[in-house]
């Protein structure tokens, strides 16, 4: 099946789940309010009566930054700690939400007895709670992959620095910096893609062997790299189109700032819903691609046998939970 077909099927999954998109919008809005008011409150308490703080809010001043650190060092440290905590909490929330989205998509295509009548919210939070621990262990298992990517970038940056040493190699140095940035983006995108497909496999099989699933995902990504990358390009193009439409509407409304800050509240929320819908569609497309084309001995259980000792149908030929209506 072509990647365009997978992507269209993913959008079909997203269109059939408007309640889940609305639920995601509510949860994202609530988490955004917590982050916004928490950070603003801390900054107001720390720098609300500081002339240096008001100066820094208008323009960057190195001398002001140094004086601010000297006079409000504890407040700056508290702010940095709060930012780290909020970042970690946001990341954990994304793990929680992704489990709910994948569980709803899986159940919608192949419901068991009684699940078809279940409410979307109940299914969502059931899946989010069920897979959160497994997704968290997956992040730990994936740490060596990120370390390897970091080492490769470090080695490449050292080679680029030695190759472009000297003013006469300035043009070469600029090209190598661009190549280094491109390699960093590729590694980050590749790592996120591998983790996404590992999560999908955990949900599809309801498995608990996180390390084995991760190894199978590495093999799957190597065999289907260009197909996985092509599907991701479709998603990035969609996101670009949505953001471009938002910018166009902002200009028509007379906005001059960034997309999120320039749009009116109503149009802004429509844009957020569209972005969430695109993310759901991408996850649905990834799930369909993974379950139809992923055949790895690292992912499949031993071949089952019946009472007569004959081998049953191969697990990779059976219908996928994510593939109930793909035929």
Structure commentary:
With 327 residues, the chain is an all-alpha fold. It has one domain. Helices cover 77% and strands 0% of the residues. It is built from 12 helices and no strands. α1 crosses α12 and α6 packs across α8. The longest helix has 37 residues. The protein starts with a helix and ends in a 34-residue tail after the last helix. About 11% of the residues have low confidence.
What is the radius of gyration?
A: 24 Å
Count of beta strands: 0
Q: Biggest sheet, open or closed, and with what strands and sense? A: none
- Shape field: globular
Please provide the ordered H/E string of secondary-structure elements.
Answer: HHHHHHHHHHHH
* Number of alpha- plus pi-helical segments: 12
Kindly report the average pLDDT value: 75
SS class: mainly alpha
Share in helix: over 70%
Q: Write down the domain tally.
A: 1
Distance between the termini: 11 Å
Unreliable segments (pLDDT under 50, ≥5 consecutive)? 51-62, 296-319
Strand content: under 5%
